Hints:
- The complex is a heterodimer.
- By secondary structure, chain A is α+β, with helices and mostly antiparallel strands.
- The two termini of chain A are about 25 Å apart.
- Chain A is built from twelve helices and four strands.
- Chain A folds into two domains: about 5-60 and about 175-315, no CATH class; about 65-170, Alpha-Beta Plaits (2-Layer Sandwich).
- Chain B is α/β, with parallel strands linked by helices.
- Chain B contains seven helices and ten strands.
- The interface of A and B includes residues 7 and 20 of A.
Amino acid sequence: MNYKTNIFIIIARLFKTAFQYMWRNIGLSIASMTVMTLSFFIIILCLILYYGSAKIIEYIDSKPPLIIYLKGNLTDEEGQKFLDKIKSSGLNVDVNLQDYEFSKRDFKEKIKDIEVDDSVLEGVLPRIAFIRGESQETLRKLISYLENDEEFLSLVDKQNIDKFGWYNFDIRQADFIRSLNEFVQIAGIVATGLLATVSMILIFITTKLSIGYHSKELEIMNLVGAQGWFIRTPFIINGALYGLISGIISVSMIWASYYLITTYYPNSINQILGIIGTVPWPEIDSYLILQFYLYVSLAGAILGCMSSFIAVIKYVSK
Amino acid sequence: MNKNTVLIFENVTKRYKDKYALDDVTFAIDEGEFVFLVGPSGAGKSTVVKLAIQQEKPTSGKIIFNSKIRVDKLSGSKLAKYRSMIGIIFQDFKLIETKTVWENVAFVLEVCGKPTREIKKAVEYVLDLVGLLDKKDAFPKTLSGGEQQRAAIARAVVNEPLMLIADEPTGNLDRSNTWDIIQLLNKINNWGTTVIVATHDVEVVNSLNKRVIAFENGRVIRDYIGGYEL
């Protein structure tokens, strides 16, 4: 041959052929991509549910669940008495008795924009003790143990109606989120495996059908001197494109759903969980969206590439 | 002037189970020759074509192209490269139905990575040569048999092959189209391309007075210049 082979021209032609194959089997291509898109959508949803619930659990765990309101002018001796009382319960709990400064900070945080002078708050707020137990049940036992104890009652804030408080979360909701997280973890792995396999099989079948549809064309290509890789590569690109496009569409669907929910139903997650005002929506910035697009599309392309490669090896003769 | 030998069949035998399609066949074709392979059905002429383009491999013997390439030993990318150095014409045209005339011809150059501008120039030239420039955007199904074969010839010669092999190129054509195709092949030969035509069409052979290799029962029974003599 009297001319130089240009790699970029060849790559462009391989892509052109791949798009032609896709276009000629447009019905099959759309069907495959639809199923793949739905599969990816469910997989991403499982991932989001898993990581979302893990975040909520992290949020719960980062906050001490049980609060005991003690009197504001608690002395060191009384403080020690309180700690001894807890210890005498025999329950495995960690106690964190905060100083009065904490109470002031906490109060200011709650009233937010209202300016309050420190002197006004002196001695009027309760001292706060955070109790973290190995389970909610342990904390319930502790409450039962303390609530009728005279010695303990002499230490609590008389002005406060509630001696005990749950910090942000109710036990049932917290337990529900934990079970949800465990369920999504197992179901997510099963669903991901299953749907990824379904997607791969689908691309394999689509590639196989496409090879069959173009069998005469492939024979002619062989006879006129097309290299094996020139014949096979468009099918592999095809598979990769199916995965790539499905990945992009599924992330777009997730993003659109997120946008719609947060715009029109901003409190929906809290309503669902029954924890009003406690769980903030996760921050979604453009970098995170870009990362999502990149990873999901890449995973789709690799998946598509692999299954079409297997089909090509099996059905395109050398 | 010394001419190179383009194709050599050296003691080539092709056997299908107990039947010999070719039996110890030896011949050589020089550069620039126009050769007819003739004989009745099953004589072995199509087997020669299949072996020459390595659609099949011989049971024994050597097939040598351009004095250095062992065609019977080729595989993979070397076989693809060899096929891109020769032009092939089939009785059933073997055009890609989903491509236009232009795309069918351009495709041969595209697979080699030839620049688009050069492809345009070469395809335009050969389509003009075969008289199909005005039908460049037509799909094969919309063309007559003669036009389809002319498109196939354009595809076969666009890469400027050293050798053109045609298996019954006029088998599906009427007399008028047959004559057009033969004239076209003769024209290509006159420009220096070696042309090998497998046919059983007496009139075609008689019309050109070229070298004839006659086959019968898988053997070469005559190798001469002239008309159809079986």
